[in-house]
Amino acid sequence: AVAGQTLTVAYIGWIYDPNAADNKGVMFDQGADFSFVLGSNDVIPGWNQGVVGMQPNGLRRIVIPPALAYGGNPLENVPAFSTLIFEVLVLAIQ
Fold this sequence. Notes:
The chain is mainly β. Helix content is 6%, strand content 44%. Strands 2-1-4-3 form a four-stranded antiparallel beta sheet.
C-alpha cells in the first residue's frame, strides 16, 4: 500500500489500556469494507502512517499516540488524549 491507493479494510479499534490483556481496553469502533485513500485526510494521521507497505490479506496491529489520533478532541466514545490500538486487515488495494 502506498499513498494515493484506495484501501478497503476491516478493522477493530480499542482504547489503549496498560492494565488490559494485550493492552486492549474498551473497544470503541469496528468496521468491515471501510475504504479510504491512503495519504488523504479520510483517516487519522496514524492510519496513514501505520498501513503503508501492507499487502492484501495483511493483518497489522497499529498503536497510535494521541498526537496522530484525535489529540485533545474527545469523540463520543474516545476520551481526549487517548492512545488507540487498531487491528487492520487489508481486504483490497486499488
